[in-house]
Design goal:
mainly alpha, 75 residues, 0% strand, 1 helix
């Protein structure tokens, strides 16, 4: 039982160290103002509606004669 507690404590310390190192080395916003003020704001990645509310109404295809699909060849 003490082995698992020591292992858990060591794992927690490694994770804490990794998190702190990530926070220190992560790129930050530049000190100079950006050309666009919202350039560092993340974009929303929401998806649209699914199922029937997201269905698209399509126009019915016209009745085409398959024989007229291509122009006649000229020899």
């Amino acid at each position: 039982m003490t082995f698992y507690l020591e292992l858990l404590t060591a794992l927690a310390l490694v994770c804490l160290f990794w998190w702190l190192l990530y926070r220190l080395l992560r790129p930050k916003a530049p000190a100079d103002p950006a050309e666009e003020p919202l350039s560092f704001v993340p974009a929303s990645l929401r998806k649209g509606p699914k199922g029937r509310p997201g269905a698209v109404a399509l126009e019915e295809p016209e009745e085409d004669n398959p024989a007229d699909a291509f122009p006649p060849r000229e020899a």
